[in-house]
Amino acid sequence: MLTFVADWLNILLRWAHLVVGITWIGTSFYFIALDLSLRAREKMSPGVFGTAWQVHGGGFYHVEKFTVAPPALPEDLQWFKWDAYLTWVTGFGLLITQYYVNASIYLVDRAVLPMTGGEAVLISILSLAAGWFAYDRLCRSPIGQNTPVLALIVFVGIVAAAWMFGEIYSGRGALIHVGALVGTIMAFNVFMIIVPNQRKIVASLVAGEAPDPKYGKIGKQRSVHNNYLTLPVLLMMVSNHYPMLTNHPQNWLLVALILLIGAMVRHFINRHEAGDHFNQIAWTLPVAAVGLMVAIVMTAPRTDPAHAGMQVADADVMGIVERHCVACHASQPSHEGFEEAPKGVVLETVADLGRYAPLVDAQAVKSDAMPLGNESGMTDDERRQLGAWIAAR
């Protein structure tokens, strides 16, 4: 019953996370595009930086943006913050229900670093907090005024964090933490910087004072950071479904490529929205394409020469499966973490193993994603035998 309740909690949190995440990302994309489409026109209200004419849903919209703030605020001022807050809250809830509660399964890989589930959770919380603190201090430092240098250091910092997580957690635990770290930075940008700065501007207006333009400038900087990090963080958050990413021996390098690809695509879209000529921004697409090709080549399946000539009997391969797979992948799993076989994959007979051979090959032969956390201690030789049996079919 406990597993049943946990599954429903996981489903509802995941559903909510998707809904609020889509809304937050859509809002981010819209306002960056709006900012970049603003134009100075002959007739504008005093203090207006630029305006934009837009058409959508059968109607026309005329939007103004003030250089700092209008002289007076309307009563129906709208704030865009809860989608960001709830995206982080639901995401952290998923991290708890999926990874913290089952830390010994999903986070710990004793072949990487022997530790308890509690230690893995403590490291997770501390690393997310430390990542935000380091990023925030960097942005507040003089380096924060130099956009190219700041972007490079943030890029290197995220890749370094990916390498560090890979030295601590299982493959899927490492990449989900890269996503959680970037997501924390993005949400805390809204919670700790963008919204508080906007409140200071509002307080100045209410008090009849001229707002300090630095607050808007700082908020815009963090908003742009969030915009460029959006595409990479989305892929990180779904990476646990793809062992070719999570369990690649150089998954930190894949993180670097994902950051590069996402940033190039986002930059192309942003500058296109700003009205830049295609020739000025076309360079971003080949860079993204090269990054993608390198990632594809890195993750391409390779034939293990150790398989060549190896003969493995059905009885031997089923012995391996019974030792390492059937505790979870059975019609009635004996593993305490599962009430039914994950994804409905049952491996109780030779026919079952043949049916799901491609999945087994991807998860347990070409990567060490399975068994989860290698709880049962599956050896490289056993993986080779399993691979040879599959290759011979």
From TrEMBL:
What is the name of this protein?
Urate hydroxylase PuuD
Q: Does the keyword Methyltransferase apply?
A: no
Q: Which UniProt keywords apply?
A: Heme, Iron, Membrane, Metal-binding, Transmembrane, Transmembrane helix
What organism is listed for this UniProt entry? Methylobrevis albus
Cytochrome c domain location is 304-393
User: Do the record's keywords include Oxidoreductase?
Assistant: no
Q: Which domain of life is it from?
A: Bacteria
Which residue ranges traverse the bilayer? 12-34, 84-101, 113-135, 147-168, 174-195, 227-245, 251-269, 281-300
Spell out the molecular function terms from Gene Ontology: electron transfer activity; heme binding; metal ion binding
Q: Which InterPro entries match?
A: Cyt_c-like_dom, Urate_ox_N
